[in-house]
Description:
- The structure holds two protein chains of two kinds.
- Chain A is built from three helices and four strands; from the N terminus they run βαββαβα.
- Chain A is of the alpha+beta class.
- Chain A has a four-stranded antiparallel β-sheet.
- Chain B is an alpha/beta fold.
- Chain B folds into three domains: about 20-140, Enzyme I, Chain A, domain 2 (Orthogonal Bundle); about 150-240, 3-Layer(bba) Sandwich (Glucose Oxidase, domain 1), CATH 3.50.30; about 250-559, TIM Barrel, CATH 3.20.20.60.
- Chain B is built from 22 helices and 16 strands.
- In chain B, strands 9-10-11-12-13-14-15-16 form an eight-stranded parallel beta barrel, surrounded by four helices. A seven-stranded mixed β-sheet of chain B has the order 1-5-4-3-2-6-7.
- In chain B, helix 3 (about 80-90) crosses helix 4 (about 95-110) and helix 4 runs antiparallel to helix 5 (about 115-140).
- The interface between A and B is medium-sized, with 19 and 19 residues.
Amino acid sequence: xxxxxxxxxxxxxxxxxxxxxxxxxxxxxxxxxxxxxxxxxxxxxxxxxxxxxxxxxxxxxxxxxxxxxxxxxxxxxxxxxxxxxxxx
Amino acid sequence: xxxxxxxxxxxxxxxxxxxxxxxxxxxxxxxxxxxxxxxxxxxxxxxxxxxxxxxxxxxxxxxxxxxxxxxxxxxxxxxxxxxxxxxxxxxxxxxxxxxxxxxxxxxxxxxxxxxxxxxxxxxxxxxxxxxxxxxxxxxxxxxxxxxxxxxxxxxxxxxxxxxxxxxxxxxxxxxxxxxxxxxxxxxxxxxxxxxxxxxxxxxxxxxxxxxxxxxxxxxxxxxxxxxxxxxxxxxxxxxxxxxxxxxxxxxxxxxxxxxxxxxxxxxxxxxxxxxxxxxxxxxxxxxxxxxxxxxxxxxxxxxxxxxxxxxxxxxxxxxxxxxxxxxxxxxxxxxxxxxxxxxxxxxxxxxxxxxxxxxxxxxxxxxxxxxxxxxxxxxxxxxxxxxxxxxxxxxxxxxxxxxxxxxxxxxxxxxxxxxxxxxxxxxxxxxxxxxxxxxxxxxxxxxxxxxxxxxxxxxxxxxxxxxxxxxxxxxxxxxxxxxxxxxxxxxxxxxxxxxxxxxxxxxxxxxxxxxxxxxxxxxxxxxxxxxxxxxxxxxxxxxxxxxxxxxxxxxxxxx
Lengths: 88, 559
């Protein structure tokens, strides 16, 4: 399992478009991908889960990835967070 | 008529009520397997329906609107959703419709409780899916039929798919009990250019198929009227559409009087998203970019690089048209929490705009540097707000020159940027001639100039009848500034409400103004007003001898 703490950098937080980008990307991997924010744990393949975290700019989350393609999946999603899902 | 007007106009038509969702409640079932099968089939049906809607919307409305339904589809196909629904059927022995209602309602509530307005609005998306799905379980394939060919939609709140499933070509107007100016429906109504009003409160007194007249120009609603009233509204409607048509012709025209005097017609903007309207209405530039909006709704001040990026997008989006940056006008009624400005007794007379910037030089420099960095990408000018003395301008100019020097040393390419001032404090208007020796241009800000000249708080409703830029004293100051500009050859523009007022425009034009900057929607009318001018002249002595603003208006109208 790989895990790391990340920060939301987009101005408007993880609203619908970035959230759906995240879900689309996560769905392409077989690994289990979790986004943990405080006490809430979200499945990154579930748009409902992701949106329900209500992530805003500067919120910190933990990304946890476990499975056959975990390192690829981890790198991909970490990068998406870092570049603000294209709208930072 | 209560509510926020989304778009102005007159609509005559039959009421078409869109009723809110009627809850199914917990309906028990004996056969869990049938319920699960129903659930699965209705999900496929719903998903097909949304997919069709995505295609239809992308073709007929636009990509942005289509994305709303893309999001719906993603929620519907969420891998966690179907298992939850199946569990609910099994655990509670309830029907498919009840399970969908129960699970999606709790999801809706969850979104409503998130502390972000954006997420709260997502609750409406869930509601929309729920409604569609339940309908597909109970009445598969039942679409709404439309009877009349001119209807006014009346609803508590419309969901995006409500508005898209209806044949919009028959919709002439829209009234919503709830909702704000940024709701899906409001945006849609705006792009369809039909009269619309949201947040009206209770509309249950309007019955299905009842004929009504809604007038969002004079803000009134007629439910009981005779044929002659109807006829007079039809005439008004016709005149409006005629006017709209003829105004369109001015989009690419230059505002020029029959004597050949040209006036640049520009728009005021607060950010990138205002550029679309600017180009659509044919504005020739930006006469006022309210940069304080870049500082608002944030947790800390934007850095120089962040500002550079924002300004770069805007200047590039201008397609070479000129843009005047007004450095931040924070304070007064525009509060910015992270700046920790003290609460004041008289904020409009207090620590705001340039008065603040000249103290917080680092913050001021960050903004100026960011603006200078985009100067080579277009035609950029800078003006300072709330300048009351020549000394203040000289101080601000020095800071600007330091920025230029620093940037040049850093090897950044700069273009020449004219430096001007807002004339909004009477002292600056009175001393315009002294200022003209130092500044490159003037922009008269009538909103504050009126409030300060007349000592009338423009936000105080009780004395709002005292606030009028046609007051002889305000007109006299404006005339003085324009005379000085002519004499000293100083470029002069105007931003603020007076600049877009069709009654004021001929006066300003005849007095020799170079530019008028207004809200983008006023641009076409302004161009038309200037183009219709011949050799009108307005006597300032006559205006000064008027008793009040009303008399000034009457004099101007008489010419």
